Sequence to fold (217 residues):
Amino acid sequence: MLRALVLLPFLFAAPARGCEVALLLAIDVSGSIDRGEYRLQVEGLAAALRDPEVAEVLLLSQAALAVVQWSGAGMQAPSLPWRRMLAPNAAAEFARRAEALPRAFTGADTAVGEALAFSATRFSEVQDCRRKVIDISGDGPQNAGGPLGPLRAEALKAGAEINAIAIEDMGQASPISEFYRRYVISRNGFVMTARGLGDYPRAIREKILREVAKPLG
Fold:
């Protein structure tokens, strides 16, 4: 049933003409993310991309994917360049590269605003894509870098949509989700909450499906 609901918009839409969405995955590698948690992030991303439903919607939308790692002030790295999902094995190949991705930074602060502004600059390489989405994950609020508000505004001015995965501690409180909801996502964006890094694979899968499986224009 879920598969049918996810793919329903494509069944009644005109065939895709070129890239429908450029999805940039911005991964938090700040000091609060230890070695094991980093592995959970990249392995969770790889698992999501190997999911048949995810791979199918990426192919149907001719999506472009890229990965950025981010941490403190001036610490942003384009870790995987843009890859077009134009063949059935494209998502699996991107998953393989993501799973083997070396960590770019360790032991630094959390500059969310700079991560957004840097990520927005990457879309200059995929101007033909109809939608441009920053998919940022993080486990803490900003504590470094330039002011978040103006830097977020730069990303929005560049035409980016911003969604987030908030990585929360186990329990009922959701302070990180609220931070991302209030200060980070775009007007029509959304926050997906992962209860600990162990819940990250489920969250990133559902998030990609929600971001990509939209009616095609």
About this structure: The domain at 20-212 is CATH 3.40.50.410 (Rossmann fold).
